Each structure stands twice: as C-alpha cells, then as structure tokens.
Fold this protein.
Amino acid sequence: MTVAASTTQSRYDCVVIGGGHNGLVCAGLLARGGRSVLVLEAGAQVGGAALTREFAPGFRVSAGAHLLHLMPADLSRELQLEAHGLEWAARGMPSTAVVVGGGGLGLGLEEAQQGLSVADAQAYAVYTARMRRFAAALAPMLSRLPPRLGTTAWADRLSMLRIGWEIRKLGRRDMRELLRIIGMNVYDLLEENFDSAALKGALGFDAVLGANLGPRSPGTVLTLLYRLAGQSAAGAAGLSQPKGGMGALCDALAKSASAAGATIRTGAPVATIVVEGDRACGVVLESGESIGAHSVISSADPKVTFLRLLGARYLDTGFVRRVNHIRSHGLAAKLHLALNRAPAFSGVDGSALSGRLLIAPSLQHIEHAYNHSKYGEFSGAPIMEITVPTANDPTLAPAGQHVLSAIVQYAPYALKEGWQSGRQRFMDTALKQLEKFTPGLRGCIVGAELLTPADIEQEFRISGGHWHHGDLAFDQFLMVRPVPGAAQYRTPMDGLFLCGAGCHPGGGVMGVAGRNAAQQVLKSS
Amino acid sequence: MTESLAPHFKQPLLKTPFHERARALSQIDSFVPWAGYTTVDVFSTMEQEYFSIRNATTLYDLTPMVKYRVSGPEAMPYLNRLVTRDVAKLRPDRVAYCVWCNDAGHLIDDGTIFRMGESDYRICTAERQIDWLLDSAIGFDVQIVEVTEQIAALAVQGPTSCAVLKTMGLWGVEKLKPFEIGYFMLGAHPLTVSRTGFTGDLGYELWMEPGAALGLWDALMEAGRSRGIRAIGSQALNVARIEAGFLLPNVDFVSAEHTIRTGRDRSPLELGLGWLVDFNKGHFTGRRALLQEKTQGPRRQLVGLDIAGNKPAHNALLYTDDSGKREIGSVTSAIWSPTCKRNIALAIVDAPHFQIGSTVWAEIYLNRELVWERRMSRAQVVERPFFAPERRRATPPAEF
C-alpha cells in the first residue's frame, strides 16, 4: 500500500485536499482524534471561498462568503476558535429591506411592526414563529449521517425513521402544514401570508440566495427552510461578522487544527489522487511530489474530486454519469466596491449599514431578474445582498473609507455572450441598480471588483463557480447529495472521502460537512 | 440508400443491403423486425435451413447488428473500463467476445470487440448502446461513432463455408484462426472476414460497404452452388445457437438498463460467464459489485438442461421434485436438438440446484389439438455447449 516514489516520501494517516473551512474543520477534528493530518491548500492562503483579501489598494474584503450565520456554536467551541484568535466585529446583525423610492423595512420582528400594516405585522409574527419551529425540527438532520438508499440495514432505516419522527414531533397541525408547504414554491407561500411587496421580496430573497431558482420555482420553500434550519442549528448568534473578515475564521480554524497537530501547507495544489489495489493511498502534487496517506479526504467539489483528481477510470460509469449530472452552475456574482465615504441609502437609517441590506423590491422583481438567467443572460435589474463590513470593522479600509460587499444575482455561469465582454456590462448594470437606492454612489468609488461565477470558479477552484458546490434542491440534498453512492462522505473508492460543501448538508460557511466527514473517517480506521 | 431518405412513417422498417435477394428467395414471406430492419425469420422451412448450417453452408444477413467504431489514443483503456474482459490482451486483427455491466455488476449487453488497428476497435452488439458508451467515455480521449448503416454484414456458416469462400477467391481464408480477422478484396471492393459466428460451427462473418453487398451475395451463391449453400432466417440460427449454448439478449437475459422489477437483472457470474470477468486487470464498471458477489457466491445460475422426453420445455417452470411444490427457476430457451438428438434447454436455476449433475423437474405444457396437457419431466443440469464439433476450431478447416 505504499506509493512508488523515487524521492523520499512523506506519509500521513489523513491527507485533506483543500484548506477551506470544511477542510480545516475536518482536519482539526481528525487531528483531535489522534490522526496525523496534512492539509494541502492550492492557494497562497487558507480559507477557500471564506477568505479575506485585498481587492483595491488598502481595501480588504471577504472575497467569497461575507456573513457567518450557519456554523454551529458547539463546533466553534469544540475547535476553540475564540482561543485561537477569532474575534467578532458584529453579531446578531440586522437585516433591512431597501424600499424603492426610499426607506427601509427592518426585518427584525419588532422593527417590522412599524413598517407593516397591522394584518401583515400579525401574520409576520405567526409566520416567523412557525418557520422557526419547522427549522428547529429539521435542524438535527444537518449534523447526522444521511441514510443510504436501497438498503435494508437497520442504521439506514433508523435514520429514515428519525427524520420522520422529528417531523411527527411537531404535532399534527404543524406536521400537516410542513408537509403541505415543503414542496411548494416560496412565491405562493408568501402570497398566502402577506400583502407587503417589500416584505415578501425580502423573505423570498433568502429562498433563492445562491440558488439556481426563482421564487416561483418548485422547491424554494425547501431551500428557505434549509437555510433557516442551518441558522437554527448554528445557535442564537444570528448573522455575524468576524473581525478581519471571513479569512479570520479560517485563520482561527487553521490555528486550531495546527495546535491539534495537523500540518497545513499552502501553495500545494494536488494534481491527482493515487490509487493502488483499488484504494486511494495518497496524492501527487502539481509539483510532482507524492505524499502517502491511509485516507484521502477531499473538500474540493465532487466533480473536481471524482473526474479530475481521481479520474473516471477508477469509477463505474453509472456513478460518473451521476457526478457529471450534478447541477453546479453558479448564478451569484460578488461585487466589491472601495468607497471614499460611507454609502447612503435613501431614507434608510445609517445604523442599517452595520447589518445586511437586501435589494429585492418584490417577488415579481426577483422572478423577472431570474428569468434572464434561464436564457443565458444576466438580470437587467439584479437583486442583491449588501454588507458594508467597514461599518463594523474599520480595519478593512483606510481610515474613514469604506468597503461595500454585495452578492449580486442573477449572473449565470454560462453567460451567452461570455464573461469577457459581459463582466463590464454586468458591473455597470449592478452599479446602476445600486444607484437607484444610493444616489451618487459612483462618485465615491475608488476601486471596484466583480467576481462572476467564472471568476469564482477560477479563484476558488469550484467547478461552475457555485458556492454550494452544487445546487441545493430536492434532488440534490440529504441522501442524494452529492449523488447516491457518495452521500455518506465515503466514496466508491476505498480510502477516499468527501468533506466539502458538495456533501450533505451543503454550502454556506457551516463546517458541518467537514465535521460529519471527520466522524466517518475516524470510524473507518 | 434512397429508401432511407423517405420519411420514417413511410418505411418504419429499414431494408438491409441484402434485402432484394432475400425477398426474391423468401418462399413463405416470413419477415420479422430486428433492430429497426426487416429481416427473414424463415425462407422455406426452419428444418431445411437448420440442417444446412450443420451440413453445408448458410448465408445469414446480420447487417442489423449494431456496430460502433471506437478509436482514439485511449480506446484501449476505455474499452477495458467498459467490459469485464482484459482488452489489453486483444491483439490487432483479433476478436473477443465480451460483456459489459452496470455499477451493480449486472449485464447490460454482450457483444464482440474487433481490434481493427492499433487504436481502432469495433463493437458489435445486439442493442443500441450509444448512451451508455458515451457516458462511459467521460474522462477518456476516445471517439465513438455508430457505423451500423455503413457496414453490411453477412454470416457464412457451416462445414463447407471455408471451401465456399476459397472457391469464391478468398485465398488464404483457411489460415484464419478462430476469432481472427483477415482482409481481402472482392473485385474492387475491400472485404473484411472474421472467423466468428453464432452457430458454434465452422463459419465466418463478412463485413463490407453496403454497395458491395449484392455482388458478394451473388458471388457466394455462385461459389457455393455445388456445396449446398442456402440462405437462412433467424429461426434456424436460434436452434444452432442454443445447441452452441450462446445467449440471446431479451430471451436468456434482459439488459440491466431495461429491467424494471428488482431481481430481474443478471450478473455475468449468474449467466455462467464468469470466465469473461478479469478481476486482475484494473478497474471496470461493476467490478466492486462483482467481487462482492463472487465472495458471496451467485444466488442463481444459467445452466444447460437435458430433459427427458422429446417435448421442448418452452417457458417451463422448474421444481425440486415432481410434486411441483418448490419452484427453483425457469427455462429461458428450449429446443429439441436435431443434431444431438436430445431435448435441451437453457435455464436459470437457483442455488444450490445449478450444480452440474443436479436433477430438477420441468413443468411442460403440451398443446395436443387444442387440449393442454401438463407433464413433469425429469431434467439434468449438464455442461454447455451441447454441441461443439472439432471442425469449429480446426485450422485449416477440413476440405468438404
């Protein structure tokens, strides 16, 4: 089981491919479990799509994800992230829907009372409480091993039963309501509940954020509940911003893993996973260096892991076919602006800048924005999730200046005209959309960057530039995520595991996939 | 070829390049569809045609066999990942009988792989497979093109077939060993000859461009006149292939890609094709599942049966004893073998009753002038093939 190599070859119990948050969580837990662990990160710094970097002279930004709200509190505690340097710039950040023609609608329960009609305000309280109950019922599912399909093993049956039991425990009324809505689209659900276009737009936004879906697409209630379940599992902290940006989280994860004994190497891209005797037994780096391992754990997306690093020849055709069919084309772009003053959103209280601002004026608007993407075009009036990280953490920009970070949808990966010419046009479109709400913004831009899904693919090495490593949808979650045969973190290749966002429970800076995977690796050897 | 330009609803079945001759020879107008073509089931009588296979020379139009050209630098590794046999061992100008499986190790189809050049292969198979073949090509530098319509194919089978081909002018054809490919010219037309077939007898398969088809047919008929050459249909061939113990898709097994009910798909180990599975050649689709099955032992197996009496056991259920209480399998193909003078069948039998020498009981239904009678017949599990004459392998073949 040793790899043939001419040079002296290092050997570890576990080699983790990719130093993003899931890779680092996995490595940290494996090291705590007494394994010798090596993390191989292709980039110059750890973090994957959760890193902080400069995008204009003196301005730094979380280049991928810009908010933390899904990582379970017990996981941060277990890895002692605060002891390893994680500090918070903000916790419990508010959300505000920016309203066309000026003004903002705070989405916190109490603030919302002021901006809504009596009927909407009442309905909002009921809706929020109910969705929280549903989310809490679904939350335990995220940290469990999904059952395998088509087996008669008791562990799998039990796992299925537990999912059913969590839902049954809601009581008859809630269970019926959950089963009624779970396959619905979020448009219909919100239409049932509210009148306010701004409220519906903002609530619907979270259902389609990062998804290949519009509010009228089937399954959008599921994506919304999934996000809420993740937040519920994460604990009470709510939307959070680490001091120093998301990169600081991964720095803390890296320190935590190192302290537990893991070795972390950056600038070490893996070329291939080595197979001998039908077992993964190491990796070869692009430099040609080979490293032996008892287990190889990949946080790269399933397509990269199976089709590029391992190779179809080591897998069965049906499995390769399923991997090839994973829908993993991203639709979210990331806009970074360096500003010489704080942006001013008309009619919105300046304190809202310390939270997230949503540009999603109505469900109709989101649906229109989505329509373009179906035909390979970007939205003419995109929807956005905006943060101004410098409002909470001035260290990210020169004194008195600011950074605006926005997720902009929809920007399809396979843009018909190509991103070469499309990038500048989409940037203009996004700025035009922003200016409707922050007049005069262009005048204070001193630097700008737009990451299209094509750029995200390039920079973060994610096929299709999809930050979830594959759409979160009915047919791509739980026991069919990423595909049957690899949904329990093990893969058809002995010794090879997955630990990235492509696995259950998916993307967002959550770390649960990394933790679940580590448990399986520890169990296997 | 002008016919194929007609709209499909005007000619739901295509005609092979030999159709004109077949139509002229057909005495009872017995045509059946096969893979989108109209083909002959019986020309005159099945018995006459069958005995020509075993005693003279026969022509059988196998143009509808689906053919794929597989080429490119990774054609060999591609095929090795596709099929269960070690294709690396297949030398140029040789043919190998192969099967390919899905992930669960269940048979999708069987067929022959021809190595036409260093990196140039041809797959001949009963069913269209382009979807599976292309999905199997993900990650391989290989081109796959269907060439069914570009190649006319004719099986020339029977003890005098070599002599007929020599008379026609194929000098040196007698040197071809079983599963070897030879290249000849017939007038201005190139002709590829492989010593392969579906009869279990001495025989060849001839591959040519469609334009050369009728000329070849006429030349063969002329050359074979004194050696009892005869065109045959699928029914006669079916008897010969059962005697030879060959499997027919959708009769002896259903492609795993087409089965709906669980437990209806078959592994090569269950079909008695374990000798085609090479676990030591590296990975191929279904390997992990087959390895597991091999460790556990197959739950059922396709076997040959020698059945008492002379009534073919068509579709018979099989039992442990003549009480008919415990069912242990069923017959997939059955005939009275005219050459062996035995009542034979291919059958799927549950463990442990598939051991050679085991006795099972077949429930045979007989229609006697519209009155059905049921008969329990003792049957013995026997070795396949039922008929394997030395002449099928002899090189050079004897002069007849």
